[in-house]
Design goal:
- There is one protein chain.
- This protein is low in regular secondary structure.
- The chain has one helix and two strands.
């Protein structure tokens, strides 16, 4: 029997590419260092989550909430963040380099040395 994704994570796995989890609830979780490469996480909640060094390269993150999340050193290159919420998030050395910022909310975000 194959272990579930949760069991894999609990056993130390950090590479979870190409996931299809629209509307997922990751609020408040510690997902430090997880690699979601090219996953579809549209409409998910990462509110208040610890996401240091987390990789969102090429992900669909449209209408996703990162409100109050810790995103130091996170990587969003080539991700779709249209309509996403980063209110009050910590964006220290965060790499964005995304195609569109339409509808993105950065109100109250702590931004330091981020690359846009």
């Amino acid at each position: 029997m194959m272990p579930s994704r949760i069991e894999q994570y609990q056993e130390g796995e950090q590479y979870f590419p190409l996931l299809e989890i629209e509307g997922g609830n990751f609020a408040g979780l510690d997902l430090t260092g997880i690699d979601f490469w090219e996953s579809n996480l549209k409409g998910s909640s990462f509110e208040g989550a610890k996401l240091q060094n987390t990789v969102f390269v090429g992900c669909n993150l449209e209408c996703t909430s990162f409100a109050g999340a810790e995103l130091t050193d996170a990587d969003f290159r080539s991700a779709s963040v249209k309509g996403s919420d980063f209110r009050g998030a910590s964006l220290n050395r965060t790499i964005f380099r995304v195609g569109s910022w339409r509808g993105v909310n950065l109100d109250g975000a702590q931004i330091s040395l981020a690359k846009f």
